[in-house]
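Note on ligand handling. Small-molecule inputs were canonicalized before submission; formal charges were left as drawn, and no protonation-state enumeration was performed. Where a ligand contained multiple stereocentres, the stereochemistry in the source SMILES was retained. For LZUJQKHR, this procedure yielded the string shown in the input block below.
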Amino acid sequence: MKLALIGYGKMGKTIHEIAKENGDEISFIIDKENAEDLKKITAGNTDVAIEFSNPESAFSNLSYCINNRIPVVSGTTGWLNKYDEVKQLCEEKVSAFMYASNFSIGVNVFFEVNKFLAEKMKKYNDYKLYMEEIHHTEKLDAPSGTAITLAEGIIEKNDRFQVVESMDIVSKRIGKTPGTHIIKYESEVDSIEIKHEANSRLGFAKGAYEAAKWLKDKKGVYSIQDMLFGE
Ligand SMILES: NC(=O)C1=CN([C@@H]2O[C@H](COP(=O)(O)OP(=O)(O)OC[C@H]3O[C@@H](n4cnc5c(N)ncnc54)[C@H](O)[C@@H]3O)[C@@H](O)[C@H]2O)C=CC1
Ligand SMILES: O=C(O)C1=N[C@H](C(=O)O)C[C@H](O)C1
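Structure output:
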């Protein structure tokens, strides 16, 4: 497939390695220094774009792709206040878009385990919820996109919690940590903890690459759950 990489940092480079191994053609590599080249990407020269940039650039990068009907997969976090606008634009333009706060298979299974536990714990008010995310020191946003998705999953299943902003999420930035998320219910008598720990960025990159292959001939707004757990 002809793949454009928008954002060529840690994630863009890891995805490039996977694309090379699969013999894909890289139509464009866009980063801060050549950001104006974004406008050279068209549906004629590119099958699908993968966008991993930063919270400030994501919305305009995604809008460009959608306006020009270039299917686009986005993993950038920290711009989600504009998600509904992007979704609406994609529907209006009949383009294709997928966002995931985390593209690893393990985390997406972990999201389901988190919801199961939240549902089971909803009657037991003696348990205090503790949420923690740990990432590398270069990360710009906090809490992580994954932690926000976990919080949304808890809100969906447990009416003790109403809004993400009112939930205490502890964010730690330590060395080169690729991404660790902990959910813990603690009472005086015992505690239950679930944890996902990424060993590297490969799981995120593989998931985003698979999402691009899956999305490239589709129209519509999709989640990674559609790809992993859909019919
Ligand atoms: N959804 C997921 O599975 C994952 C999401 N992320 C998120 O993806 C984003 C990128 O992560 P990393 O690659 O680790 O960050 P990074 O900082 O290594 O790379 C970001 C790149 O975007 C470039 N950039 C800045 N302005 C740009 C513009 N206007 N157009 C294109 N590129 C531009 C920067 O120069 C940099 O090279 C972050 O928001 C991070 O939280 C990271 C890992 C997994
Ligand atoms: O910035 C990162 O590195 C990561 N960001 C995503 C997030 O904010 O959840 C996904 C993963 O945890 C790595």
